[in-house]
Design goal:
By secondary structure, this protein is an all-alpha fold. It folds into 2 domains: about 5-90, Leucine-rich Repeat Variant (Alpha Horseshoe), CATH 1.25.10; about 95-215, Tetratricopeptide repeat domain (Serine Threonine Protein Phosphatase 5, Tetratricopeptide repeat). It is built from 13 helices and no strands. The longest helix has 16 residues, at about 75-90. The protein is flat. About 40% of the residues are buried.
């Protein structure tokens, strides 16, 4: 799971009802196809602007192209890529489901996990293909200590969104708690392979590697 502050930042940009969207904030109105082309532009500011537009207008098929910019030479572009990808994943066109999802996030932030689950149940019923609802319900179950239920929701989230490096980290945390080093290692290795900016995972992965090596001795 990403940090709460980072998640709140992205939520405020993408999900705030009645607020300007990312593309409006950047003052750009180009289409999705042009934004995809601009991901390859020499100018970092153009690449960042393109990512911001794709957060609003992109589709799931665009994510692999956006993921490439997590390896960009420019630090600001890499940061925008992370936010834009998360923003795209958080987009929900169903306004009633979107309102419920925002309420669920508020409940999670207030420590009201059971209330969050009720909201997310309704979101999932309305939009079963919205992976973030499964992800956040997994977070709620995890906070309640319901590890099996959390893992089940995370696995569905990954079926819907196989690139979700945040969910992979959540799964790894459960397997680490269960002393399943191999499974935790596999999830974290997948996460950092997709997003190499997850530097904080490196010492954890190294530690897991050492445990696995010792088990083979």
């Amino acid at each position: 799971m990403g940090s709460v502050s980072r998640f709140i930042t992205v939520m405020s940009l993408v999900l705030s009802l009645g607020q300007p969207t990312l593309a409006e904030d950047w003052g750009t109105k180009s289409g999705r196809e042009e934004a995809l082309e601009e991901l390859k532009d020499f100018d970092p500011s153009v690449r960042r602007s393109a990512l911001a537009r794709l957060a609003e207008t992109g589709i799931s098929e665009d994510v692999p192209y956006m993921l490439r910019l997590l390896r960009d030479d420019n630090f600001a572009v890499r940061g925008m890529a992370d936010q834009a990808i998360t923003g795209l994943w958080l987009r929900l066109d169903n306004l009633s489901a979107k309102r419920l999802f925002v309420k669920a996030i508020g409940a999670l932030q207030s420590g009201e996990s059971n209330q969050a689950i009720e909201y997310l149940d309704a979101v999932i019923e309305a939009e079963p293909s919205f992976s973030e609802a499964w992800n956040k319900r997994g977070d709620a179950w995890l906070r309640l200590g319901e590890l099996d239920r959390a893992l089940a929701d995370y696995e569905i989230a990954l079926q819907l969104n196989p690139y979700h490096y945040g969910v992979m980290q959540s799964c790894a945390s459960i397997w680490m708690e269960r002393s399943q080093a191999r499974k935790a290692y596999d999830y974290l290795s997948q996460a950092i392979a997709i997003n190499p900016n997850l530097d904080h995972l490196i010492p954890v992965i190294v530690d897991l590697e050492e445990r696995l090596d010792n088990d083979r001795i």
